[in-house]
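Training component of the fellowship. As part of building independent skills, the fellow (R.M.) carried out the full modelling exercise for a liganded target. The chosen ligand was pyridoxal-5'-phosphate. The inputs are recorded below so that the supervisory panel can assess the work.
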Amino acid sequence: MSESLDQAKISELTAKYTYGTWRFQKGWKPLQIVDAEGCYFVDAAGKRYLDFSAQLMCVTLGHKNKAVIRAIEEQARKLPYIAPGFATDVRAELSLLLKEVLPSGLEKYFFTTSGTEANEAAFKIARMFTGKTKIIARYRSYHGSTMGSVAATGDPRRWAMEPAGKIPGVIFAPEVNCYDCPIGHHYPGCGIACAEYVEHMIENESDVAAVLVEPVVGTNGVLVPPPEYMPRLRRICGDHGVLLIADEVMSGWGRTGRWFAVDHWDVRPDILTTAKGITTAYVPLGLCATTGRIAEYFDDHYFSHGHTYEAHPLTLAPAIAAIREIQRLDLIRRAQEVGAYLGEKLSALKDKHASIGDVRGIGMFWAVELVKNRESKQPFNTKADKVSGTPLLVDRVAAEMMKNGVFIQAWISHFVIAPPLIITENEIDIAVGVLDRALDIADAEIRGGHS
Ligand SMILES: Cc1ncc(COP(=O)(O)O)c(C=O)c1O
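Fellow's submitted model of the complex:
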């Protein structure tokens, strides 16, 4: 890298020659990052930021985990690439480990290089296996950016592809959201009407191949379903010969205090997709795992799917190391225990800040939702604001936190708090303190009567 490029120039060239994702390009001034370690990353001016969202809820082990880096280095020296038609030691070893940690019954694996590709594989497999077409997804969801996954995405990242720029055959069910139910019910009196409605859709649609859910919704607000929801959905799918696909791209790898979110309810999906934490995000790897029953179908039917980078050795070696690190550091238990502490600290903020409508979460996976009014639950900003480039209040709060050395992910009218699973209680205290002070910005909006 040329020595002559200063920080401002690097930011300028990045914005001039490369796309900033999910945003208007004008006004993008990306901060240059030069280092990262543990729960912190460092900008070119030497300022340190506490990473309260593990970047994109993916750096599960924290930055620069030595064992994962060593696995990448060793694999790069040994066998950096070989075509997916060959067997490798890392492919066999990772498969055995996956069998150990994935929900039981998921026995055959297709490796991709992203979460969206894992979902594309799931859709194609579900369609080939069932001979049916339709996929039922939910509105409060994100499943990826490619034409299939974005078609199944309920949030406004789908809108630019409406109506013709996405795959046909995806229909939407109401999400499970007990804070602000999309169909106006209240738990538990509702009898889980949102799940029952999925059955009504299956019965009336015909041709349904699969139901796709994030078992704990991620970016769209860390929506944790009530205990009956996932088992009920499992039964509905089973009764109608429809596959249940669990998208655990964000909720997997200990994030919720179990290896996978479905483990909370002992639910076995027919297909599980994941990515992100599988390598603690150091290399791009995704996974589409299917049951033995689905796998057997392809013994005698053409498996019509593949990528040049499928089962890329350089992506598999760090996944082995990352899983072993989660085990060695006992991070599933840690996500439960330290996650409960994080939840307590965040919940306490609700007493101080009128702008907080809800604090919810599970394990090391939390959302703080901001509202103008607790009664009406009216958010500060809408989905339409997000895609029209209207400045969002949550982004102002997040910018104030960055000034004070804490990085947090904001989405429309809430924050997603999902730090590396190695975060300490002391680091949580620091980050929550910075959030606490920054929330005065939102409270002032309410006092000032701005809308
Ligand atoms: C639940 C979920 N599914 C799929 C994806 C897409 O993953 P990727 O960005 O690796 O394509 C994401 C990304 O945030 C996600 O959160």
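The panel noted the following from the submitted structure. The CA atoms of residues 159 and 298 lie 35 Å apart. The two ends are 47 Å apart (CA to CA).
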